[in-house]
């Protein structure tokens, strides 16, 4: 793999990806580039500040680091403004890709995608959907700004791929103007260091909010333990450059892969198993004694929609609330994706199942945050 550049490697998933590459013997050097490279730092990894919207800084970074592999994890987050999704997710990735493709050292580009890039259909929630069935969002899709940006960006990333059957994988080959690319579609991400899902759910321990359930808890969701996601990125990078994945049934370049835990779990089952692990008194009661407060999706989506409009009015469109209608829309549709393609082509093996992942996540927060 040579030198690997991880963009956004100080974030939640980025830090685990960095650790996975740093532990890989074929990596000669791992460099992390981030606007503020201060969190989750690993002693033997190099860190560089970089604003990926600044083309001069990106050019200087590539010339200095000379990476063979780029793992691009930078994202403004699901609750960012639509303008940020376009600017950071799409335009920023496009700029980096175009510069990487014409840089003589860069050969492989692994993009951290999301299942939000595809249309979620609750009528197919009774079985896992594979990559051939999924409909990728674009700028005109009737979905959230985050989902549209993820879909459009993935399309550009995979469209920038150079057919691996046409390139020379030998050590001294000329790769100028060539680049093999792939997209890792992560499902519901969670794990240690995850303040978004695990941290927020744990904060409900022994509160009235632990009794609230939104929707009927009928649809399953694919979840993904963060260490499994990190390993998938490493496997993808190795597969892109080994020159052995050239058969149509084994191609990695120009392909997208769903990455998830072995089996799905209903959203509120996940929530309650997590709260049980924290010692929440209510969630550890027998189910018939829990007396759940069930709020219909429609009610919560209406409240969230009103909240978004109030935020837009009083902040002049500069902020979004942490609770949005998009969030409840995603929950109401469910998502169950097949990981068979990743198993076959990437050699992907989940680190653990969801129950064990929840246990590890809660233990990390209890030991490091003091919950």
Automatic annotation (TrEMBL):
<protein>
    <submittedName>
        <fullName>C-3 sterol dehydrogenase/C-4 decarboxylase-like protein</fullName>
    </submittedName>
</protein>
<dbReference type="InterPro" id="IPR036291">
    <property type="entry name" value="NAD(P)-bd_dom_sf"/>
</dbReference>
<dbReference type="InterPro" id="IPR050177">
    <property type="entry name" value="Lipid_A_modif_metabolic_enz"/>
</dbReference>
<feature type="transmembrane region" description="Helical">
    <location>
        <begin position="292"/>
        <end position="314"/>
    </location>
</feature>
<keyword id="KW-1133">Transmembrane helix</keyword>
<dbReference type="Pfam" id="PF01073">
    <property type="entry name" value="3Beta_HSD"/>
</dbReference>
<dbReference type="GO" id="GO:0006694">
    <property type="term" value="P:steroid biosynthetic process"/>
</dbReference>
<keyword id="KW-0472">Membrane</keyword>
<keyword id="KW-0560">Oxidoreductase</keyword>
<feature type="domain" description="3-beta hydroxysteroid dehydrogenase/isomerase">
    <location>
        <begin position="5"/>
        <end position="281"/>
    </location>
</feature>
<keyword id="KW-0812">Transmembrane</keyword>
<dbReference type="InterPro" id="IPR002225">
    <property type="entry name" value="3Beta_OHSteriod_DH/Estase"/>
</dbReference>
<dbReference type="GO" id="GO:0016616">
    <property type="term" value="F:oxidoreductase activity, acting on the CH-OH group of donors, NAD or NADP as acceptor"/>
</dbReference>
<comment type="similarity">
    <text>Belongs to the 3-beta-HSD family.</text>
</comment>
């Amino acid at each position: 793999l040579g030198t690997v550049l991880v963009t956004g490697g100080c974030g939640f998933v980025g830090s685990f990806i960095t650790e996975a590459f740093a532990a890989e013997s074929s990596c000669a050097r791992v460099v992390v580039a981030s606007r503020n490279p201060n969190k989750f730092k690993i002693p033997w990894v190099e860190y560089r500040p970089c604003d990926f919207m600044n083309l001069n800084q990106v050019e200087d970074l590539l010339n200095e680091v000379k990476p063979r592999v780029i793992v691009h994890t930078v994202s403004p987050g699901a609750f960012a403004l639509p303008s940020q999704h376009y600017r950071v997710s799409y335009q920023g990735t496009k700029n980096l890709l175009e510069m990487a493709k014409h840089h003589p050292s860069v050969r492989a580009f692994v993009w951290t995608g999301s299942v939000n890039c595809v249309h979620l259909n609750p009528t197919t929630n009774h079985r896992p959907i594979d990559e051939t069935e999924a409909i990728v969002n674009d700028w005109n899709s009737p979905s959230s700004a985050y989902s549209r940006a993820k879909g459009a960006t993935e399309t550009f990333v995979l469209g920038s791929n150079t057919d691996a059957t046409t390139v020379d994988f030998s050590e001294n080959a000329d790769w100028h103007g060539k680049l093999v690319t792939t997209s890792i579609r992560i499902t519901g991400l969670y794990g240690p260091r995850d303040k978004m899902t695990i941290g927020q759910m744990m904060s409900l321990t022994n509160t009235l909010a632990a009794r609230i359930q939104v929707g009927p808890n009928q649809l399953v969701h694919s979840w993904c333990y963060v260490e499994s996601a990190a390993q998938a990125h490493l496997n993808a990078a190795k597969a892109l450059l080994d020159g052995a994945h050239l058969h149509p049934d084994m191609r990695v370049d120009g392909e997208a892969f769903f990455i998830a835990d072995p089996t799905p779990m209903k959203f509120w089952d996940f929530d309650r198993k997590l709260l049980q692990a924290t010692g929440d008194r209510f969630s550890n009661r027998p189910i018939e004694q829990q007396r759940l407060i069930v709020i219909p999706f429609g009610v919560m989506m209406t409240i969230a929609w009103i909240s978004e409009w109030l935020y837009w009015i009083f902040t002049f469109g500069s902020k979004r609330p942490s609770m949005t209608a998009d969030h409840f829309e995603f929950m109401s549709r469910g998502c169950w994706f097949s990981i068979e393609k990743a198993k076959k082509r990437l050699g992907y093996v989940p680190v653990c199942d969801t129950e064990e992942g929840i246990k590890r996540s809660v233990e990390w927060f209890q030991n490091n945050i003091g919950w």
